[in-house]
Amino acid sequence: MLEDYDGATRAPAPGAGGTGVELPQGHGLRWQWLTVESNAALVELLARIEEHDDPPYRTTLEESAETFVAVGADAGNAKVIGIDADGVPRAYAIVRVRPTAGTYRALCDGGVDPAWRSHGIGATLLGWQLRAARTILDAAGQDNALAVVHVEDNMTHAQTMLRLAGFVPTRWYTEMRRDLALPLPEVQPKGKVTIEPWDPALDDAVRRAHNDAFKDQWGGEQHTAETWLQGRTYFAPQWSFIALDRTSDRARVAGYLMSGRYEGDWEAQGWTEGYTEILGVREEWRGMRVATALLVTAMRAYAADGMEYAGLGVDSPAPDGDFGLFGQLGYEPTRHSLMFTRAV
């Protein structure tokens, strides 16, 4: 229940919206800026949405606070929630504008209570997100950007809405899992590279290695020391590893693997897993079995803690993307999603 709506339509609360962004209107809802104080109401709404749509995950209060409130990498952002006459949250929308390799992206997220669907609220919020993104981009002096929306492949109604708004599918995502009951290969990286446990003292060195490894990747972000530490509510250091090249007296980070432990998702997806969040190898060490060794080491750690599967996600510019190394290691697809984009 939200009781702090004050009727304002401009000047959002700190961290809620960009300067000049206006609240959406209509549909019998009171629209207000979404802030950390209303995060519990957002999770209440997400629970109803996820119960109905049944994705293989469930958003926790802590996860939502990280995902929807942390703004360190954003050039600007706007976040709103719609409340009915009884104080129940019924819809939300978020847009974040951030620089990535090659362009700015306006990352759009939103949802409508299943009981309030088929009344045009989703289309209204999508239009609001595009206008808000343009306002934020203008304030940042950016002419060109891409609006980005992720949808599950079975959400055909949402995909139709996006196509009608001028969006086209541009990336295809596949979640994969690997049965840890199956044998794992013995793999060692070439040269004087060793796979070592996660070391907090090397965290910033891993950040710099990540920025180097992903500097030319589609949508790659250059992390600051602040943004690198965001989104770690479920980071599992005991399942994370660093590949160090000890050719010289001063070890260099050749690659890294960071894992997450999402216990709240296990019941919904139907199995336990260690999830590989980020895997990166710097160009100088590619082709030296570093990625393979990191993956196998992580899988052994997952298995040692009783996990049934290893999980990860891959993306491709085509729907029939090649799974390459992951397929060779025994990973199999479990679900698919799409990224839709359009100029904004």
From TrEMBL:
Residues 1-22 are annotated as: Disordered. This is N-acetyltransferase domain-containing protein. Gene3D superfamilies: 3.40.630.30. Residues 29-185, 193-344 form the N-acetyltransferase domain. GO terms for molecular function: acyltransferase activity, transferring groups other than amino-acyl groups.
